[in-house]
Design brief:
The chain has two domains: 123 residues, no CATH class; 57 residues, no CATH class. Helices cover 51% and strands 6% of the residues.
């Protein structure tokens, strides 16, 4: 392949590309960081995907008999699959196209493919597909932050738990759970808002009865 030395970076499309490569130095460094960050993103999605309340114990008989469903976010599971499949695809592309052919990663897990692709990055950025690779990796990180923002934290809610009556409800994103020693009851944030409406309606009805 004949290298062109006056091309624009295929990633940012603003700065000049770095020597015989297809992307600039800042984009190259950011790409290395994004590949490293995908390992943490994958683990973070796994932690957020099933947000079990503290009282849930999968090893106990009660866990299998409880009426409380496991709160599961399919979007996070799909994003984990996307990360795995995208990295595995690019690893295959490198193995098939690079000469001499490198040893492939020892498995297709994110923990294996992301570091392996980092070791091959010097070759990848010299290929015309470097811009596509950068956009896909960056897109995975952006989508992960959209699906599971890092600033998610448990925030206390004022209403009592509809099951045990304790003031132990808090929410993390779309999940509401009876925590801090509560019964472990879980619901969606929408169901909590419905509970708010029901309590407000009951209070209004009580006031009307008292005023009558």
């Amino acid at each position: 392949m004949t290298h062109q030395h006056n091309r624009t970076c295929a990633a940012c499309r603003q700065r000049p590309a770095w020597a015989a490569r297809w992307i600039c130095v800042p984009c190259y460094l950011a790409l290395r960081e994004d590949l490293h960050g995908l390992v943490g993103d994958y683990r973070w999605l796994g932690e957020c995907m099933v947000l079990l309340p503290p009282s849930w114990r999968t090893s106990s008989i009660r866990a299998f008999r409880t009426e409380t469903p496991i709160p599961f976010d399919a979007r996070m599971s799909l994003q984990r699959d996307r990360i795995t499949e995208t990295l595995a695809y690019w690893a295959r592309m490198v193995v098939e196209a690079k000469r001499p052919r490198p040893w492939p990663p020892h498995d297709v897990t994110v923990e294996a493919t992301a570091p392996w692709l980092t070791t091959q990055l010097g070759w990848i950025v010299r290929q015309e597909a470097a811009g596509d690779f950068d956009r896909e990796i960056r897109g995975l990180r952006v989508d992960t932050d959209r699906v599971a923002p890092r600033e998610l934290e448990w925030r206390s809610l004022p209403l009592p738990c509809p099951r045990c009556g304790q003031l132990a409800l808090s929410h993390n994103g779309g999940l509401v759970a009876c925590r801090r020693g509560g019964c472990g009851h879980a619901m969606t944030l929408g169901e909590y808002h419905q509970l708010e409406d029901e309590i407000a309606a009951a209070l209004a009805e009580r006031r009307q009865a008292q005023d009558a």
